[in-house]
């Protein structure tokens, strides 16, 4: 079986890895430069003092809550994989799911489609068969984050500007992505309007029809609970961080700001929401009366312990998943 995403002419795997690492480093450097600039403008002493207030066990607690998110969503991935009948084990599904985090900062997170390549190598399943797995997983994230944002806003004393539209947009996207007939209709309309990309839209229609296997209410309810638990864990970590820094704004408001910032960052189209999410978080904290001396370090720390921690895990698991899939592909081809 050949790779689903062959290298372009003249490119090599080491060159691609070097490029990906350079992109990651560049994005991290840009965000760090922006936060450093803000910290310098507000005074280094206050920023250092806020960071110094955190102990080692508190950092471990933040990372542990992020792990809750990854493990809950990884279990959801396994449930979806089983429903598709791919025959992968729990260990394999976690390997694919966590390894894909290495590509989280690609535009639209499209790089995470590498999971489909690994599954294809190990099971022989074509992209059209596995694509619904990625689609329903992303839709479940949007639904969970939309519901969590709406609930947090309902329980917070004050609202967030554009909070309701973003909630509605996230839930609408989730509904579209999990309704086979609606998604297939959009694909047909897209083909008629553009008159191009016939093969792409045809694949989208086939993937949409395959989504019908996820229509079980029990499955989607369990998937929804796992998504809610996972994203709430990271939102609660943000609440704890703010409280430890002496800027407690309440659980509901902290969760709302964390989730809204993540969704808003994604809407900018920037890889991983980098830049947009941080800007939204700092702005919303400022509106809640949290000074820049606390909002800047809090934003930096929560992004490191969530997004960049996930990328770190992905970078560690990625080569393992790649090597395993290549070995398994060799076995399949020679049997």
Describe the fold and architecture.
The protein is mainly α and 335 residues long. It has helices spanning 13-42, 44-52, 56-84, 90-99, 114-123, 127-155, 163-177, 180-194, 198-210, 217-244, 251-267, 276-287, 292-334. It is built from 13 helices and no strands. Mean pLDDT is 77; it is low at 1-12, 38-43 and 330-335. Helices cover 78% and strands 0% of the residues. The protein has one domain (83-334). It is globular.
Task: Give me some keywords for this one.
disordered C terminus, disordered N terminus, single chain, 335 residues, mainly alpha
Unreliable residue runs: 1-12, 38-43, 330-335
Report mean pLDDT, rounded to a whole number. Answer: 77
According to DSSP, the number of beta strands is 0
Distance between the termini: 12 Å
Protein structure class:
mainly alpha
What is the H/E order? HHHHHHHHHHHHH
- Please give the domain count: 1
| Largest beta-sheet characterization | none
**Helical fraction:** over 70%
**Number of DSSP helical runs:** 13
Give the overall shape, derived from the CA principal axes.
globular
Tell me the Rg in angstroms.
21 Å
The fraction of residues in strands falls at under 5%
Layout of secondary structure:
Elements lengths: L12 H30 L1 H9 L3 H29 L5 H10 L14 H10 L3 H29 L7 H15 L2 H15 L3 H13 L6 H28 L6 H17 L8 H12 L4 H43 L1
Helix pairs in contact: 1-13, 2-13, 3-4, 3-6, 3-10, 3-13, 4-13, 5-6, 5-13, 6-7, 6-9, 6-10, 6-11, 7-11, 8-9, 10-11, 10-13, 11-12, 12-13
